[in-house]
Amino acid sequence: MNILILGGGGFIGQKLARKLAETGTLRGKAIDRLVLADIAAPAPIDAPFPVETRTTDITDRASVDAVIDPQTDVIFHLAAVVSSHAEAEFDTGMAVNLTGVLNVLDRCRALPATPVLVFTSSLAVFGGEVPDPIEDWTIPNPQTSYGTQKAIGELLVNDYSRRGFVDGRGFRLPTIAVRPGKPNRAASSFMSSIIREPLNGVEAVCPVDPDFKHYYLSPRRCVENLIRGAEIAAEDLGMNRCMSMPGQTLSIRQMIDAMTAVAGPEPAKLIRWEEQPEIGAIVSGWRYDYNPAKALALGLIADDGFEENVRFYIKDDMPAA
Amino acid sequence: MNILILGGGGFIGQKLARKLAETGTLRGKAIDRLVLADIAAPAPIDAPFPVETRTTDITDRASVDAVIDPQTDVIFHLAAVVSSHAEAEFDTGMAVNLTGVLNVLDRCRALPATPVLVFTSSLAVFGGEVPDPIEDWTIPNPQTSYGTQKAIGELLVNDYSRRGFVDGRGFRLPTIAVRPGKPNRAASSFMSSIIREPLNGVEAVCPVDPDFKHYYLSPRRCVENLIRGAEIAAEDLGMNRCMSMPGQTLSIRQMIDAMTAVAGPEPAKLIRWEEQPEIGAIVSGWRYDYNPAKALALGLIADDGFEENVRFYIKDDMPAA
What we know:
Two copies of one chain form a homodimer.
Chain A: E1 2-6, H1 11-23, E2 25-26, E3 29-30, E4 33-38, E5 51-55, H2 61-67, E6 74-77, H3 83-88, H4 90-110, E7 116-122, H5 145-162, E8 167-173, E9 175-176, H6 190-199, E10 204-206, E11 213-217, H7 219-231, E12 242-244, E13 248-251, H8 252-263, E14 271-273, H9 277-283, H10 293-297, H11 306-317
Helix pairs in contact in A: 1-7, 4-5, 6-8, 8-11
């Protein structure tokens, strides 16, 4: 079992690699080799099998051809230009999120055996004129270039799979919380920040009111779902191999209450409520009511209450005091 | 008003050109010039304004750049590799139906003014695991490469429009009947053939039973809808600029009864019923239950009973006896 993680330097890629190192198997077979590839060389990880790190530019077909070889059995394709970046730099987004996916798919098509491809899409494919809840059969009507490029990726993964060029499956990720690391300039940054910073004893700003609702999944469950996604038998995927990954709809108030239940009343006091209309304008357009029935039936799961998300952060990611 | 028809040599392109010649205006302005472009030089048409014919390869960006110029106000993009062709030749389909659309959109983006682009999609974008009726918010889950490429085109038209690169609008065409000309190798060929050939005094084979249902629109109403589509104000298009074009769901029996009502009992006697399981297997997977609510609200129309389709064929296309 030879595995490649495209985007292996990102935080989900690194967590996925560590999880694979811990289990040592995928699809019922021992892992022989793991390749972590990213635009900058990923950090190596400790594992009971060989781990290689590579610098790969997915916008360059030759670079993709070099990293996906005939021995590659499973590819996790996590590499992407994120939402705000794809919106600010249209051509970069098209190159990475569209041409990049085509390069990966066309390379798979050229191989003698058909690799499994786990494509990470995003719930950002949804928006616009669609009723709630968003079902597996709701049209992706994205209102960002990122969402558009991910929705196109889903269509391509389906068609290349239907034709037998690849054994693809795609999962639309919810917003990941609690995300480790530092706040960034993404409009969604506060959704992890208001939990992570207070747990670390640092003040955080909440730019929306406590009733603001959104759809979340912990990094730990996300990684487990990606692995489960790789293991689903092709014949169980049906006619649409792309689906929403389960998450939980939560208000800010529910998230903070969960933090208090796990860590006591002090962290919540470090949240400064400061309405930021420019953030509110963006995130209030985001959808939060999903019915990920297909993924649930295939064994993917959501967190069981946000207290889990808080505990996973403390256990998996919180810096030592 | 400068108009370009990409695919201007096809039967819809030619009918659209003749209709524009007849009305002489579009979007409330007199037509100054009409360019008909196709992979082979289109037949010229008579018009009260200058008509140019061009040979254009939409897979070649330079060829697209040459035919879309800064004076172009409205582009009708009808050029495509059809369903059976895109299924038989994957790379050709991707080049014409995906790269071709990107070439057109990127050329529009590079222009100083923003042209109107009328993109022809297809109800073939629908399929797979979606409930009936197919609504404006139903996911395109295409089961052909052609449908996949058209669904991608819709996403691109929406995003390029949202960003202000083009003023796009897309319409998913029903099966066009009664289509003029000769039978071809498309699985849907019989849907026009069983009406057209008998009206012309020629035998035709019906490969499915009389209860087989499908969704149809006449060429005449299709052309009228494309013109109406070009004239819709951008602000009325909402957050999804692509929509299903109205048609009628009809059984084969209803179609033949309509032919008999218009042309008497003789033509129906020229239909030979000969079940062809290989045709049945393809067309039985096609969807026929659509609710094109958005397009209807925007003034696009279906035929008023299949007798209209029969009359339009006799008036517009039937060869003189």
